[in-house]
Amino acid sequence: MNIKESIESVRKLFRTDSDPFPIDYQAVETLRIKYLGRKGLVAGLFSRMNDVSDKERPIAGKLLNEIKQEISSVFNSQTGSSKSREKSHGESDYSLPGLTFPVGHVHPLQQTMDDIKSIFMNIGFSVAYGPEIDDDFHNFGALNFPPEHPARDMQDTFFIDSETVLRTHTSNVQIHLMEEKDPPLRYIIPGRVYRNEAISFKSYCLFHQVEGLYVDKNVSFADQKGILEYFVKRMFGANTKMRFRPSYFPFTEPSAEVDIWSEKRSQWLEILGCGMVDPEVFKSVDIDTDIWHGFAFGMGIERICMLKYGIDDIRLLYQGDMRFLEQF
Ligand code: DAH
Asked: Model pTM?
């Protein structure tokens, strides 16, 4: 093995030996002596410098310093200052700081989901879940998507067979809820959804939504406005400027989208879709439209999370990179 290969193999060995980093003092010292001791592996590498050719010496020297630095810094960050520990020569030094354990983080997506859930639960919504693999009826048909609607197209939908899809939105659970329970209903439905889209900084093949469904006797668009205004102010701050913009969804009539104003970007940003439940939808689940009215809304969690925390690439939420996650 030449010196470069030996350095690499010591580095690999150290990564295995130090993950997880030992907890008790004696084991930490054993590990330190194995690598950084006077006769340790790093010292062994240094002693081979004599055999290295003049040409290779500067590079080998640099690599050696790097690995020494790398290993020392793991000890330093895991145990506090190494110098003060060495001074104690293995005797207990009660003035030393304790060993720090790595602590996990709540993922920013989970944090956003939890925040949304708690806001709606505070105003009387319950939480429901539904299937991620569903039939055409629940994902499209009962939601008043005509058979030729482009959302059913192969480009957007992952089909399992001609009748079965990975749900493209959480709206499918509106149908399940109304089939299973009698109104009044007041639910939010968090969950994962799938779309067959090109992956980029702004879209991913899976993401999360929170759906809302409110069905009762005298429900109006004004009720929906009140509830969504409350949500926006709680989620983004009491001074957030928002607007309802007319829109279209097959399962709501009238429909709207909600935008919030971003001072930083000087532009309106869309955060959710909503509307009054279309009578066609009520008919498909046998709810009497003379008695019951309702509204529904749906929002993308990734989008809200990215706006709230200033994240500019959706893929960061799916890569498990600790340098990113540890910022939350
Ligand atoms: N399902 C819609 C989507 O995936 C979002 C949505 C819009 C849900 C309006 C709703 C709604 O319940 O009323 O883009």
From this structure: 0.71
